[in-house]
Amino acid sequence: MHIQAGGLDYRNLNEIVRISSDREVVIEGCMGQRYIGAGLSGREIRIHGTPGNALGAYLDGCDVYVDGNAQDAIGDTMNAGRIIVNGNAGDAVGYAMRGGKIFIRGDAGYRVGIHMKAYRERKPAIVVGGVVGSFLGEYQAGGVIVVLDLNRDPLGIVGNFCGTGMHGGEMYLRCSEIPAALPAQVRAEKVGFLQSGEVADLLREYCAAFGLDPVQVLSEPFVRLTPDSGNPYRQLYTNN
Amino acid sequence: MDPLFIYPEYEVVRDYDRCISCRVCERQCANEVHRFDERANRMLADSTKCVNCHRCVCVCPTHALKIVKSDDTYKRNANWECGTINEVYRQAGTGGVLLSSMGNPKPYPVYWDKLLVNASQVTNPSIDPLREPMETRVYLGKKTVKIERDEKGRIKDNMSPQLTLSTPIMFSAMSYGSISYNAHESLARAAEELGIYYNTGEGGLHRDFYRYGKNTIVQVASGRFGVFRGYLESTAAIEIKMGQGAKPGIGGHLPGAKITDEVSDTRMIPKGVDAISPAPHHDIYSIEDLRQLIFSLKEATAYKKPVIVKIAAVHNVAAIASGIARSGADIIAIDGYRGGTGAAPTRIRDNVGIPIELALASVDQRLREEGIRDNVSIVVGGSVRSSGDLVKAIALGADACYIGTAALLALGCHLCRTCHEGKCNWGIATQRPELVKRLNPDVGYRRLVNLVTAWTHELQEMMGGMGINSIEALRGNRLMLRGIGLTEKELSILGVRHAGE
User: In chain A, which residue's Cα lies nearest the Cα of B220?
Assistant: First the structure.
């Protein structure tokens, strides 16, 4: 099904998508309509233009492709599926996601991967090709976040407060030096080149999605961030 | 010798004439207060471990035990009370934030107790609810709709989704994790039998309880625990938790030790890792952002379910509620500062927030003044202790009340305020299997049904006494209330006259 999104408000557009029996839906001329794909499963949604906030919220197993930029809160509380953005993304990418993958070709804003979790066999992943703003992986409890900085942005690969409150999961940053001023609860180590393993496979999948050369992407060393404790507040309280 | 020994606030007293050393108290106490001393050939108790939950008192077959307030005391001081001094000692010893549970126990004014209800005499007849119909059914949700007709002139059904309650009482949010499986089962079954709703809290919905979906409200909080499509679709309504009366402005934190297999499965988070629910939703900084979350939930559920926004009663609650009423929410839940919790820093619990009575009155007034009262229903909680409080809340403008502490009391809670230690001897605020099984859901659910049924009878009696036969006619009917011993300012905020006026 092809939908011309031009004159539709989000509610009309999303209703057309929701009640359509087609597995494949193409949205042309998207102009900031919010909540596309919210809570859907088993569909393939291709969006041309710019979808609005909360794209793929509570997504439960769709493939969503954006040919353009995405705005804030994509993949909020996402359970399964893939969201692939061939452009930049706004703030709070993948808030509390517990499954599925989000691939961003360009940069992403603040609070990427906040509250990301893992659950049984589900291990969510976010890969950002450019750089990210502050609070990357805040409160991360599981899953994996990768930032590639493919264009070596002078802004730096991550902003401030990277991994604040992190208590699970891992982050990989494609850089040779450990970023300055990481919070105390984050453990950082240089892991060198990633040639095999889960993260290398993830990056090959990312490269395939955007037609990038995996050899080139994997030819730089990575820094790995993990929390130093799964129970950061254990010593904080006294019973009264 | 420990110079900082703190003498226990309560002492276990055993009547040795009655004690038969059966050791039931020993087996029943998860705090390990009681033990049998072989040499002395008798039971002993270590009061320093006692939390005063009264489990041993209740199970002792010969009624040989009682727990009394200790008469040990520091030099009397109206400013530095014993508890205050002990708290300083504890913090000096540990450097920790004081952690406690359940509602604010401090002697702040309880406005319910300063309000009196009207009754009919002579000129307007009272109604006998035992013989005449008395409507307590309540619909919660947005009421403002324009009448629209289709091309054939028939009225279109454009009503927003509503919750239907047989009586204006719901069980407030208590998460699986903070309370036990058996407590949740009791609440769910009672809600189903009563035709009301229970609330999962923010800890997800256990797979066994999906079948109670039509009587379930699920919560979405900042940590998004257990939130996925099936969770949102299974339920009757979705509540966004912005705040909680017991701890306004701060988040929750379930320690990794309490994240058992089942809790991990239900919350959909890793086992053994702390479940951190931060104070703010990090994607909500404005009413517009709140609107975004509300509509993402409505979109994900095809606009079939009302969305509730729960906030703590704080200083600017009326302005906040006004924003929420314009945000697309169907119901606002307001939680007063005496509301309970499974764990809260003592200082927050005891010092932050305002009484629900004042918050409710000011919110209802504000929404009426702005002409948006029918945009939302109002549900209040934060220590509704009896049907008397319930009647007063409705007369002050509430559509329904949430009860939490009262429901736990019905399940056996003795308000020892030690939930945060996870060793609840009554099987409520614990995940330890040997303790959880002490709460029999067959009994628990029946006691909850009894409680709500009794309150509903009392509600009907009081309504009948006022000559009112429908809950609609009581809602916001402040003429049915009079204040007693209140200042002009308090009367003006509550919008009621003084008794005698």
Answer: A77
